[in-house]
Fold:
Amino acid sequence: MIRTLIVDDEPLARRGLELRLDAHADIEIVGQAGNGREAGFAIAALKPDLMFLDIQMPEMDGFALLRSLPTETLPLTVFVTAYDQYALDAFAACAVDYLLKPVEGQRLAQALDSVRERLQSRAAGGDRDKLLRLLARMSGKTDLTLADALAQDAGESSTPQRLAIRDGNRTVRLDPESIRWIDAAGDYLCIHTAAENFVIRATMRDMEQRLDPRRFQRIHRSTIVNLACVRELRSHLNGEYFVTLESGQTLKLSRSYKDKVHLLH
Structure:
């Protein structure tokens, strides 16, 4: 069961979301809160896996709540709001999804699918000591990445061109080597680097075409991974795999991308 907390200052909105969530058998609503301060106490006491969070609330809004919580206590978060102008900030805060009120059943189902995938990945991360270790270094040089080796084998320069991306009201020239992974949520992509995350409006297909396939591979319909950042791989009984990055992040390699497994060894 996915222990779920609903946070919204409007009782009718909480009730409406509760009724929609009742249709999903694996969702257990363990509590509700009417503002950010109440939600903070509820998270500490109930330790939910998932939180549906309104953004505009009195006293403490949704973003302020997230900033106030210790990282280790943060539940997976789906923002639910009547205002679409907060979408970029929501994904910059690593939200699983961003739903507009009134919440549509199909969009809610999509968000819950993403939540289940994230939770499954977290569970896999607990067994990292049992995962298969990948050969991420080649030619005996500890500072040589797999992507660099592949580029040299192809007789091409290992120095990639910088990637120009539009992040909010700024344009950033990003070194592709700094990208760890990219995931999609709705019409947006979140580019994860060691320094910061960038949220852009684009499709996975667009990003695939802009990145070097020797360095970056799509392992899921909503995930692209930097091969040089992969540390471990674990197979699952249902034919899927879990990929663990050097940073500790665990991602799912779905069955439809099973042909990419050999690239991760």
